[in-house]
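dumping this here before i forget
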Amino acid sequence: MHVIILTESRERLPARVRNASGRGLGLIMSRPVPSGAPLRIELDDAMVLGEAIYCRDEPDGFFVGIELDQMLVGLTELNRKLAAWEAESTPSVG
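structure:
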């Protein structure tokens, strides 16, 4: 999994889940994330938007508490459907 900090620099960092609930995630990351930073979490076939609520230094990295906002799942299937729609919508030449 990767986390993109949605600030001007758009940093993309690896992360691993320590805990999860219906409204949030606890991730271990290699560097601190400022509280209030908007985040995009990229999973295999999903994308989650959230906000860093807190960040604390721990022996195995930085523990970042994230409040989840929105989730998109089934992105592979969505891409297939969009490609098929685009192919159908494109006028044939000739």
